[in-house]
Amino acid sequence: MVLTVAQVLSYSVSAAFVLLGLVAVVVWLRSRDARRGYLALALGMLGVAAVIGPLQTLTGYHEPWLTWVTLAAFQLSGFGLLMFRHTLIPLSRWALALAAVTLAGTAALVAYLGTAAPATTPSTEQSIAALLLIIAWSVCVAEPAFRLLRASFGRPVVQRRRLRALSVGYLGIILILLVSAIPQSGAVSSSVSVATSLVALFMVPVLYAGFSPPAWLRGVWRAREEEDFRDAVNDLLLYARTRAELAERALPWVVRLVGADFAFIIDGDGAILAVHGTTMEIAGEQAARLEGQGLLRRGPEVAASGALIFPMPLERGTGYLAAFAGPFTPIFGAEETSRLRLYAASLTAALDRAQISERLLALEDAKTRFLKIASHELRGPLTLVKGYLSMMEDGTIPAGAPPQIINIMLSKVDQMSSMLTQMLETSRMEDQRTDLREERFDLREAVAEVLEEVRPTTDVRHELEARIPDVPIEVVADKERVALILSNIVDNAIKYSPRGGRVAINVASSNGTAIVAVQDEGIGIAEEDMDQLFTRFGRIANDATSAVPGTGLGLYLARELARMHHGDVEAESELGAGSVFTLQLPLAGPA
Predict the structure, then answer these.
(1) Mean pLDDT of the residues in the chain
(2) Cα separation of 11 and 50, whole Å?
(3) From 25, 268, 400, 492, which residue has the greatest number of CB atoms within 10 Å?
């Protein structure tokens, strides 16, 4: 038997679609992903429908049930693509039901008319039924094809090309079917058959490229984007100065790589470092949900959580990169997930590098502030002490200087000593060189000792009042550091009460906590300035505080040392009505 060109092409098309269907099924069996399953159904049924006709011609075996199988496979291929679209952008149940009924109904009509009145030349009724079948299949396929084509815009490059390949492939099949349904003369029909077969053969690799493109093809697609991607990675590693800035600049690429809706980065301490495409509040809610479901520690997740999650082992702890999926994000997840994993590794290294840069900047800033404070705050007391000593030396002040002059000089020396102590303690603490020498002691004794040290240097306008209970209040802590905390708080109350007044120190215990509250009648703090308290070098600048000496480290150091003892320092204040600073420490257990 000599085959014509049209027949050879027809058999080649059938073989190609069978092979495509087999590949689709194999890929689905490896992944067991629902979306790939629907694509495998669509392509596999196309292969079944394509092979039965040529087999019947070659073998001469014609049975009505084969017509039913062909029609069922053909309609199932259309429904499979519709279900694939449904997994991405859901259709209503009524739409799916209508599509299923229409596809099944037209297939049954064609099969019934063909079985009831078999003929070499189709009747008008059979032609109309066949046209209805093609139209029903085309509508069910065209809607997803156009939808995928629209959705491809703005997607990552590989995902975009795959979506477009699927769309073009199915739209090409629709075109072939519609052309084939148009009656032609014998000569024209042969030419059309050859042309449609060639188009159909071209559609097979196009569909394959959409379903399972080889690595070399994905590389070709990505070639233009790779240069931009390399520039983005270099930009992260070379130019971002702070961790927050780096994270903000990295997240747009995270979203771009996988086509996510939004993304955020969780720092090693559990805080949200940066977000893109959403708000901090929503990111916090999603992070809490992922943490509550135990998904953060399980690596990349898509189906269960709707997010791609990558752990980032940072110096300060394990952080996480989370990219939240849109409807198309997980559709071809292996390629995009692999690239995002590599990007997350680069981002981890960049964040650690940025942390070193931040430390250097912080050290530089601290050095600058220290020099300013040293030159400004220490110059005054040093000038005064030097002035008195010069006057003693040249005899302006006779031998045996009055006690008040000695007291003034001692006060200024104590002031300088306190400033230097604060600076040194802050430096040790931030370098993690603070060693706590914990011991069991009565907190009342520490309060009494601090009061004895403060009283001689207190202005006569200030009235120190201590309310200390008769029962011991024992804590386990570093006694020198606790004394420093109390000294800073009491000194702060005195300094910011320039007009004098009562400074009350109340010692108590409650619910396993030792409490020392220091209340003054000073200038108070405005509500909008409360955020500046307890910050390093943080000072509230206004007319009332401009003449008050200090490093801006006292309260910062007090709170940080208290927290190292598992306690805290809190503040309540009202502008013009004084302040209350409260030290809380855990009570010691039974001896």
Answers:
(1) 77
(2) 9
(3) 492
